[in-house]
Amino acid sequence: MRQRTGPFWDGVQGRAPIPPAAATLGFELVDADVEAGTIEVAFAATEAFTNPAGNVLGAFLAAMLYDTVGPALLATLGPDQFQSTLQLNVGFLRPVRPGWIGGRGRVVHRDGDLAFLEATLHDPARAVVTTATATARVIPLGEAPAAA
Amino acid sequence: MRQRTGPFWDGVQGRAPIPPAAATLGFELVDADVEAGTIEVAFAATEAFTNPAGNVLGAFLAAMLYDTVGPALLATLGPDQFQSTLQLNVGFLRPVRPGWIGGRGRVVHRDGDLAFLEATLHDPARAVVTTATATARVIPLGEAPAAA
To answer: I want to staple B105 with a disulfide (CB 3.0 to 4.6 A). Which of A33, A47, A95, B119 is the partner?
Structure first.
C-alpha cells in the first residue's frame, strides 16, 4: 500500500500534530478502508462531557459523530484536498457512560465535490448509542480556513 | 416573577453546580423568556475546540446547539421534569474563531411530551454561523439517568 499523505494521514500517522478538537474528544484512528470508504475510530469520553445524571451529554456524542463522518471522507481524499461538513443529522438512541466510545463512519456516495456520509457510535458492549447522516463538500486544502 | 426551581434553574442560578458538559462548553445563560419559550445563551470556545485552520470545529458547534435547544425546553419545565433530545439536525453556514459565541433557542411547538425546537449560533458580529432543529421528549426527572 502506497504511503498516503495530506492533513488527515499526516495527523493520524504522527507526522503532524493531531488537531486540538480531535485531541479534546480523545479521537483515535482504529482502521480505515480507503477503497470501501469506511473508517473505524474511537473516542475517550471524560467526566467533563457528562450531564447531571453522569451520562455523556448528547452534545458531545454529536461532536464525536461529526468527527467520525469527516475523517471517513478525509481518509479518501488527496493530500491537497480537505472537506467541509454542510449538514449533520443525529439521532440519540441510548445513554452512554464516560469512557471508551467506538465509531464507524462510511462514505455512502460521492457526486462530484459532494459526499453523503453516515456514522454510528457504539458503547463497549457494541450497542449503538447514536446514528448520524451528513452531507459534506470536498474543497481544496487552501480553502479550509474560510470553510465552515 | 415567582422563583423557579428544578435542575435547570438551580444550575443557572447557582443553587446547584453547573453540569460538567455545560462548563466544558463555557455555557452561560444570558436571558430566558419562559412564556415565549425563547432562550439566549453564550459559550466560550477555546483553542481546544479548533481544527488545523484555527476555526472552531463544527463538532463543537453541534455540541453548543445541543446545549441551546435543550435549555430552551428545560427552562419551561417544572422542577420534577427533564428532557431527552431525540434528534438534532445541524447546518453549518460559516466558520467561526474561538472566543465568544452567542446562541438563541426556541420551543417552536409542544405536543404532549414531544417538543419541536430550533436554535442558531452567531459570532460577535451577529452573523449566523450554524442553525439547528431538534425534537425532544419531556420526561420525569427520575428517568433522566436512563435517557439518551
So the answer is: B119
Could you list the pLDDT tens digit for every one of the 148 residues in chain A? 457 888 889 988 889 889 999 999 999 999 999 999 999 999 999 999 999 899 999 999 999 999 999 999 999 999 999 999 999 999 999 999 999 999 999 999 999 999 999 999 999 999 999 999 999 999 999 999 999 8
| H or E element, residue A109 | strand A99-111
CA A57 to chain centre: 17
Contacts of B67 in chain A (CB under 8 A): 57, 59
Q: Rounded to whole angstroms, what are the CA distances from B57 to A31, A42, A117, B62, B146?
A: 22, 18, 17, 9, 29
Collapse the DSSP code of B59 into the 3-class scheme (helix H, G, I; strand E, B; otherwise coil) and give the result: helix
Going from the C-alpha of B73 to that of each of A9, A145, B26, B63, B82, the distances in angstroms are 41, 34, 19, 16, 9
Tell me the backbone φ, ψ of residue A134, rounded to 5 degrees.
Answer: -150, 155
For residue B134, what is its C-alpha cell? 431538534
In the numeric block, which cell numbers belong to residue A120?
A: 454510528
- A&B contacts, CB < 8 Å: 146
Residue A67 CB coordination number (10 Å): 27
Instruction: Evaluate whether B85 touches B69 at the Cβ level (below 8 Å).
Output: yes
A-contacting residues in B 13-32 (Cβ below 8 Å): 16, 19-25
Dihedral sign, CA of A22, B117, B135, A48? positive
Angle (nearest 5°) at CA B130 between A51 and B76: 45
Say how far residue B134 (Cα) sits from the centre of its chain.
11
B89: left (phi over 0), alpha (psi -120 to 50) or beta: beta
CB-based contact B21 A50, cutoff 8 Å: yes
